[in-house]
Amino acid sequence: MIYLSLKYSILITLLVTGVFLSFGYVYSLIERRNSSYVYSAFGSKGILFTGVLGTAVHEIGHLIMCLIFHHKISDFQLFNFKGYKYEETLGYVSHRYNDRSLYEKAGNFFIGIGPMISGTLFIVFSFKLLLPSIYESININSYFTHLSSINIENAIFLLLSLSKNLLISIFNINNLGDISFYIFIYLMFCVSSHISLSKKDFENSSVGILSLFLIFFAICLVSIFFNLNLSYLLLIFMNMIICVIFFLSIGLIFSLISLFISYIVYSIMI
In terms of residue numbers, what domain contains 258? Predict the structure, then answer.
């Protein structure tokens, strides 16, 4: 009973944390390159141009997760207007939690990865609000309906299909006369340029991994106690993880588009 619970809880923990942290690392690589292009082309003014909105959405992701996991917010700054030229920290959220609460300790993981969720949601909602006809034609929601069963090949095919449709729809000559298109490009560029996790975010997330494992371990124990099939439980988590991967991949696609745009601007300016 304990062995099975331990086995499945370790697997589920690795799946959940591995996916989020892997995406966070890839996001950070893209943002680092993106920021270097922007800074080389525009200097510190470029950081101000993208950072006010992008950093605010980033920090709001932390704030929302703090509220969900009952952390007490002691202080926060959505953007550092005074010292953004000289300090690495463009914004921050200071929070406290009850060290004896497993739920609040596990929340550290989700607070750390919060910007990836808030950033992707912001981009998708902006897309739907500003370019509704294009959003409806792509019908992003329909892709999720095809992820009801575990099929990695199907998920990859859907991602490639979505990427192709997004690129065709965004870089369409018909959009050039629409002011909403330029507003969306600006919003997408700002947010995707600051969607990645900082070193502090990774450290904060790591604090909650053990508590997260203990929660999964308890869930597995309870499942066995009530004669529930752990393989079915794992199947549920696997389906959730595939949906999470697909969701985060949408944000990643937009980040790559932003990187392409910043590279083009950098090439023209330098």
Answer: 2-42+113-269
pLDDT band at 64 (very low <50, low <70, confident <90, very high): very high
Residues 150, 109: Cα–Cα separation, whole Å: 25
In a domain? residue 48: no
CA distances 94 to 76, 78, 118, 200, 212, Å, are 6, 11, 18, 11, 21
- Chain-centre distance of CA 266, in angstroms? 26
In a domain, 257, yes or no: yes
Q: Pick from 120, 119, 123: which is nearest to 59 by CA?
A: 119
Contact (CB, 8 A) for 258 and 188: yes
pLDDT value, residue 226: 67
Residue 36 has a CB neighbour count (10 Å cut-off) of: 12
Q: Is residue 96, in this structure, part of any structural domain at all?
A: no
pLDDT at 145: 65
Question: Number of folded domains in the chain?
Answer: 1
Residue 143 placed within a domain: yes
* pTM for the whole structure: 0.82
- 128 pLDDT above the threshold of 90: no
